[in-house]
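Chain X:
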Amino acid sequence: MGVHRWMGSGQELAVHLLQPRRLHSVVVTRSARDDAAGFDAEAIYEEIKDWAEVIVVPTGRITYGLRDSLPSGWEVFGTAARVYPTGSGPHGIPPGRPHVVRAGDSIDRLSTELIDEVLFLPDPRTLVASTSPRPGPGARAADPVRAVGAPGTLSLGTGSHSMLVTGVVTGFKDQGFTALIALDNGATSEIHSDDIYSRVPVGWILDTGTRVAGVHEPGAKGLSIGESLLHPRLLQHYSWGQIIPCLVVEAGNESAVLVPVPGESISVSRADVSSNELDDVDSLLAPGQVVAARLVNAAGLRKLVLVDVDDDEPVAEAPPLFRGGGPWLVIDRDHVPEPGDPPSTKTPAGLPVLATPEKQREALRSALLQIDALKSEAKALRQAQSGTRADELASVMEQKDRYRAENAKLRTLLRTKSEALNQNQRIARKKARTTETTASPEARDKFTRAEEALRHELYLEWVQRIPANEKSLYPWNPGFVVGPKFAASFYSHGPALRGKTLKALIQLLTGRAERMAAREVHPKRTGPGGEDPQSIREDGATCWRMSVESGVAGARRVHYWKLPDGRFELHELVSHDTFEL
C-alpha cells in the first residue's frame, strides 16, 4: 500500500476520515516552504502500516477545505501530523492532538510520540465504524456496522454495538481491583483486574488520571483494553546482575515462588533468602509482597537471590503492563488479600494468584462465616418481622456489627504482618552481610603493603560481583591508581563499611557508577556552593565525589580523580561532611 499522497480535495479527505475505514489514519501535512523540516512519512508508515494508513497532504487549499469540513478543532496544517482513529465521531474517539514540528524540535522524538499514539489504539480490525460519513459539525452519525473482523452478534435495530472509546481513570474501588473510567462521551465504565491480571490490583497497572482507549460494549460495565496491554519479557527488560522488584506468589518453609514479570515464575530456596539455616522462608516472605532480588545466571538457569541485596542498592524500575503506564511493581507496595477473596489458581495470562497462608486467614474465614450466617438470620427475621421480634432483630444486627469490627481489626493485623515481614527481610540481609564479612580472613594481614591488599580485595570483589557472561562487558582493569591516602582511609573502617566500599568501587572502575542514581557521582568543587568551580590539579586531573552510603549518620563518600588519560585515581574514603582534600 505505502504512503498515500492525497490528490483530492479537503472535503473529500474529510469524507474519507469520517466514514468506515479498515485502518486508523495518520495525516501528515507539508509546509509550502521547501526548507521547512517535517515528518518522514515513509519511516512512520514502516512502523505502523499494520495499524494505520499514512496520508501526506500539502498545506494550503486542501487543509483549508479539510478544516471547513471537519468538526471544530479537528484540523491539521503546517509541518504537522495528526492521528484520526477509525470510528471517529461524537460518540466515539476524537482525533489525537496535532504533533507539530517547530524550529529546533527533535523530529525523532516527535515521530516516536506519534507512533506510540497510534500503537496505543486498539486493533482496528476489532472495531465498529459508522456506515456513512459526517460531512461536518452537527451532522448525525448513522447506525454502526462492523467494518472489519469476524462476524459477531450485532443488533442494528436497537443500535447495540461495540464502540472504540476513550476516557480517563477517575478512581478505584474493591481495594484497587476495579478502576472507574469516565468516558469522553459522558458515559462511565470500569476496568477489572480479572480482565487483565487476576488478583493483581488494577491500581498497580493504571493511575488516577491515566487516559485509556478500548472497546466498549453498551450495557456492559467492563471496558476491554487488551490491545493496550504490554507483555514484557524478563531478559528484554532486565540484565544479569540487576536488582529487580519481584512479586511473591507462594511461600513455604523451604522455598518461595517469585514473579518478576507476568508469566515468569522463579523458585527461591532458603539459601537464596537467608544465611540462617533455622529461618523458615515463610517467616521472611509472604504472598502479595513486592521484594528486591538480584537476577543472576546460574549455569544458564535464571535465578533470584535476595540475601546479598544491600538496602541502599539501586533497584531497577519494573516494566509497565499498560502503554503509557507506570511500573507494575514497586518495592514494599504489598498486596494484603482482603477477607473473602475468591479462590483461584491461575490467571488467563498465566500469572499465579496471590494465595494467603492458611494460618493467616483461618480467623478471617471464621469471622466471615459467622457474618454470613448472621446475614441469613437477619433476612429471615425481616421476612417474618413483627413488633414482638424487633428487639431480637436489633440484637442480631448489633452482633453483626461487632463481627464486622473484628474483621477490620484482623485486616489491620494482616497489614502489620506484611510490614513485619519486610523488616525481617532487611534484618536477614544485614545478618548475611555481617556473617560473610566476619567469616572472611583479613586480607590486610596477608600483605605487607596496604595497597597490595586493597588491589587483591578489589579483584576478588570483581570476580564475585560481575557475572560470568558480563565479564567481557566489564573487564578487570588494574590500571587504576591508588593515591597515598586511600588505602589507609579504607582500612580504618570496619568490615561492613569496607564491603560496601568495595562494591561501590567496582561499579566505579567498571564505568557503571556514573549511570547509577544511588552513587550520586558529582564534581568535587573548590567551595560549598553549587556554582564554585570543580577542583582541578596541575596535571589536569578533575576531582569527583561518589556516595558509598546514604541515609545514615556520617554516610561515607569516595573522593577520586579522573586523570587526563581516562584512568581513575582513588584519593580518600571520607564522611559526607568532609570536603577538604
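Chain Y:
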Amino acid sequence: MLIALAVSALLIAAWWLTSHVGTPRPTQWIAMAAGWLVLAVAMRLSVRIRRPVLWLVAVALAAVMALMRVLGGRFDVALKPPYRHTRISPWWEFAVDWIIATAVICVLLEYLSRPRPVCSQPLTRRRRIGWWVGATVLMLLAWAPYLLAFWPGIVVRDSWSSIRIGTGMQALNNHHPIAFSLLVGLCMRIGGSFTAGTAVFSLLQGFLFAAGLAVCLVWLRHRGGRWPAILGLVWLALDPSVAMWSISMQKDTLFSLVMTLMMVLLAEAGLRGWSWLVRPWPLAGFLAGLVGLSFTRNNGTYIAAFLVAAISLFLIPRLLRPLRCGWRWWAVPLSAAVVMVAVLGIQGPGYRRAGVVPSNFVESAGLPLQQLAWANRYGTLTADQQATLRNLMPLERMRQDYNPTLSDNIKFDPKGFDNAWLNHHRREFMTTWAEAFPANRAGYGLAWFALAGRYLDPGSVFLRVDPGTKRGSGTIVIHDRDRLDSVTGGSVRADQLLSAARTVARNPWTGVTYRMPLVIWSAILAMCSALLARRPRGSLAFLPMVGMVLTLLIAAPLTEYRYVAAGHVGLPFLLMALWAGAHDEEEDADARR
C-alpha cells in the first residue's frame, strides 16, 4: 500500500504539472488529496486483477478517455485556433492521464462485472396502477408552476419552423421530424390560435412525458424497491430542467422519453432473459420503440438500426441452433428488419410521394464541412480544393463565419452558402473532403473534437437552460404571460424559477447529473463490464445511449446538452440497470439446459 501511495502521489503531481498553471487553490488541494487516496486504492486493487481481456479493454478505454481529456483541457473557443499551447508536450499529459485512467477503469470493470443479486419485489396489478397514477399526478403537480410561469409553454428557436410546417405555412420538410411537426400543427388547430395551440401542446406533451416516466418508475419500484422508486420520483419531479423540458416545444423531449422507455424495456429483457424478449408483448414494445426512435428525431433511425444489429449479434449463438430448437429466436431480428424496412420506406419513397421536401445535404455533411472550413482557415488546401469550396461561398466569408463549436454559422449564412450547388454536387464535395485529409490530418481531428468529440471528454460541462422566446416569427405571434406571478401575488416569478434551474445545473453537487460525458462513460463501462462477465444481455439497457452517442460523434451539428439529455432524464433507470447488469438470478431457462 505504501508503494501505491507513493506512485499515486507522483502521478497526481505530474497530472497537475502537465495540465495546470500555478499552484492549487485550497479547494483544489483538498480535491487532489482525495484523488490521491482514491487512485492509491485503485492501483492497489488493480495489481491483483489477473484477467488479460479485462486489462486490454481497460487500456483501450483509458486511452480514448485520456486523449479526450487532454484535448478538452487544451480547448478554448476564444483562441484562434481554439487550442492552447503549453511548455509541456501534450503527449506527456496523455501518458499521465492514461496510466491514471487505466487503473481506475480496471477496478471499475472488475467490480461491475461481479455477480450481484437483484432484490425484485412483485407488485399486484392494483399496486402497479396506483404507483403509475400517483407518480404521474405528482410529477404534473410539481411541474405545474413552470407551465404557469412560462405560459403557454416554452417555445425555442426550432419551434417556429415546426409551427410553420404543421400549420401549412411552409412546405413539408424533414429538417425536423415530420411526425413532431404534424403533432404541433394538430395542437395549433385544436387550440384555434398560436397561443392556445401552444398551451394545448404543452399540456399534451407534459402528460405524455409524466405518464411515460411513471411507467419507468413502476419498473424501478418492482426491480429496485420502494426507496429507489421514491428517490427517482422525487428527482424527476423536482429537477428544474426536467420540468422545463416537459413544456418545451422541441423534438428532444419526446425523443428522450422514448429513449428512456427503451432503456427500461431492454433492462427488463436483461433481467428476465432472451426468452422474455420474444414474447408477444415485449417484442411488440421493442418494435414500437424502434418506430418511436425513428420518428422522434432524425438520427433515431440510425440508433434503431444500431440496436437491431447489436441484439442480432448477441443472438447469433441461438440463431445458429437447429431449427427445432432455435426458430423462435429469429422472431426478433426478422420482425425488427421488417419494421426498419417499413420505416425506411416511409421516410424515403413515402415522404417523396407525400411531397415532403428533403433537407439539404449539408445537414448530413456538417462535420465534413466543418473540417474543410478548418482547413480553409488554419490548414492547407490545393487550388482545386479551394475552387470546390468557392462554389459554396467566398472563402474569406467562410473564414469569417467559422465557429469551431457550431457549423450553423456557415451552412445557414443567408448571404453566402449555396445549398443548391451542394445538393447537386455531393460526390464532388465528399471527394474534395477526402483528398484534403492527408494534408490536414491533425486539423480534421481537432475540428471533429471541437464540434462533436467533447461528448467523450470527461471534463466537459455543456448545459443550456433555455427559457425560449415569444418574439414571433413572421405572422406567428404567441402571447406569453407569467401566470405564476399573478397566482402567488408576486412572491414567486418566472425569473426566480429560471435562476433556480441555472443554480441547480451549475452547483458542484447537483450539477453532476448534468455532466453528460460522465453519464456516457458510465454507460460504456457498464456495457463493457456486462460483456466481460459473459452476460451480454446485461448490456442491453445501455445500447440506446451508446448508439445515440455514436451517431452524434459522426454527425453532430454541435455539442449541446439537449442532444444527450436522455441520459439525464433516464439517469435513475440507468443506475438501476448498471447495478443489475451482472445479475445472478432469473437466468435464461435454455441457458440452464
